Amino acid sequence: MPRRSAAHVADSRASAVEAAVDLASVVGLEGITIGRLAGELAMSKSGLIGRFGDKEAMQRAVLAAAVERFTDAVWRPALRSEPGLPRLEAVVDAWIGHLRDRVFRGGCFVTTASVEYDARPGPLHDDVAAAVRRWLGVLEAEARHARAAGDLPADRDPTDVAFELHSLASGGGVAGRLIGDAAALDRTRAAMRRAIGLPPASRR
Amino acid sequence: MPRRSAAHVADSRASAVEAAVDLASVVGLEGITIGRLAGELAMSKSGLIGRFGDKEAMQRAVLAAAVERFTDAVWRPALRSEPGLPRLEAVVDAWIGHLRDRVFRGGCFVTTASVEYDARPGPLHDDVAAAVRRWLGVLEAEARHARAAGDLPADRDPTDVAFELHSLASGGGVAGRLIGDAAALDRTRAAMRRAIGLPPASRR
DNA sequence: ATAGAGGACGAACGATCGTTCTGTATAACT
DNA sequence: AGTTATACAGAACGATCGTTCGTCCTCTAT
């Protein structure tokens, strides 16, 4: 068995987390099992859990990594667009795109985690809630900018806009995947665009 | 230990299922445990599972009961309203109402089950998908009726309307509960009304 | 050259998982 | 009243859960 340098060790922890993200996107953060994950990574259970301390610490690391992956896929590209409505439009496109490209093997990770912990208190609940609040805040700030620029009706509450976008994306992603509706993502995109006053189809 | 008559037996099975629905709405259909449920019902594990055969059969019975409960709370009351837009409005009110009244202890059961099985094949996936498809079909038929009556724009796709209502309700319910936003249900209701062309607040 | 730190292993822990089997007490039927 | 059917308890099953332990191996630093 080849040994690993310190750099490889860090890689190994990161790759363990990434594998766990993919696994959890299918079976849920609560559905992860040390044994199963260790098996997929061809590691021993003790070697795996040793990296994190205990299972909950691992779950929190996995959640953080998933949030990072989501941010990379959806938010970061949108930063290239102008603040306000153009950026919201870019977010919608990237959001639908990351669902279409299956950035998460089993559907949006944060949605899965939200459902798992919405009624179960604990550190993981708090982590998920904090991540969602942060994301809603980002969307709301962008909506506020758009409204100030006159790109959204003056009587449209930015908080409502953010909440509506989030609801549509998470609800639509789940339902579409569940019932196997190929057009679901298009419907979701159209609905999200409607929510910010854009025509159903992009001009591109 | 007192014995039970046949009628009591049926009651016992039904009450076991109802307790399981409440439990599963918190921990998920996959999170149910024979031992834990038996404990809550003050029964032995073998006595409990004996009613159903195996765990999967129990889960399917629990899911069916949850769908029934949802139908009772959301659809059946709306049947008193005129078909078309009035009935859709009643559905929205009842839908939000059943979330507010916590008909399910841990948030909408079907949403939880949708997320659990959207990426996991099997009989339970098929059951959940069938239930959601049926519900979307009901909403779509009502939207189609509303459009024919001129209460929805002619270019509004009834399938889109149904999908949008469902996405908003399930996504909004989860997010609101997760982040503990008391206004979330109001936001969701307003968004759902917007989706069917109604003003944010009901006239009542 | 050698001591130390740290990562990973295999084995084992008690607990709990879903399931099966057996015994028994009651209800329903003849 | 005697027989059959049924519903449940209790014990036990192999498997797997998360975790802990002691040991080995490799790398780094002195």
Helix-strand layout with pairing:
Two copies of one chain form a homodimer.
Chain A: H1 6-27, H2 34-40, H3 45-50, H4 55-78, H5 85-100, H6 109-117, H7 123-148, H8 158-179, H9 184-195
Chain B binds a DNA duplex (30 and 30 nucleotides) through α1 and α3.
Taken from the alpha-carbon principal axes, the silhouette of chain A is elongated
Second-tier CATH architecture of chain A: Orthogonal Bundle
Tally of helical segments of chain A: 9
Strand-residue proportion of chain A: under 5%
Give a quick precis of the structure.
Two copies of one chain form a homodimer. Helix content of chain A is 71%, strand content 0%.
Structure description:
The structure is a homodimer of 204-residue chains. Chain A is mainly α. Chain A has one domain: Tetracycline Repressor, domain 2 (Orthogonal Bundle). Helix content of chain A is 71%, strand content 0%. Chain A has nine helices and no strands. The first copy, chain A, has helices spanning 6-27, 34-40, 45-50, 55-78, 85-100, 109-117, 123-148, 158-179, 184-195. In chain A, α4 packs parallel to α7 (123-148) and α6 (109-117) packs across α7. The interface between A and B is large, with 49 and 49 residues. Chain B binds a DNA duplex (30 and 30 nucleotides) through residues 1-6, 9, 12, 33-35, 43-51, 54-55.
